[in-house]
Amino acid sequence: MLIIPCPWCGPRAEQEFHFAGEPKARPVPAEQVSDQTWAHYLYHRSNEKGAHRELWSHAHGCGRWFVMERDTHTHQILSTKAPA
Fold first, then answer.
1. Which of 30, 32, 50, 59 maximizes the CB count within 10 A of its CB?
2. Could you tell me if residue 34 is inside a domain?
3. Domain-located, residue 67
4. How far apart are CA 22 and CA 80, in angstroms?
């Protein structure tokens, strides 16, 4: 189990959080985006080994969203911060 440091609540158990994928910009304007581009946005993950940025929500806590940088090889949490 990971202990995740929420930027607002401090360290909490992983079960309190919800993983939401990579923080990336949505393709716009939505009406003009091809199905292939939407599919890539929704389902393609870079699956990097090493330091990686992820979007998380403290679902069973403060409910706020944050960006976590985590090493996907060691699971070491490098940082957590409010999304820019």
1. 59
2. no
3. yes
4. 14
Give the model confidence (pLDDT) of 56-78 as tens digits.
999 999 999 999 999 999 999 99
Name the residue range of residue 1's domain: 1-24+51-84
pTM, entire model: 0.79
DSSP state of 37: H
Residue 38 lies in a domain: no
Any residues with CB less than 8 A from the CB of 52 and at least 6 apart, and which? 22, 46, 69, 70, 71, 72
Please state the domain count of the chain: 1
Contact criterion met (CB below 8 Å) for 56 and 65: yes
42 located within any domain: no
Residues 52/70, Cβ–Cβ less than 8 Å? yes
**Given a cut of 90, is residue 47 above it in pLDDT?**
no
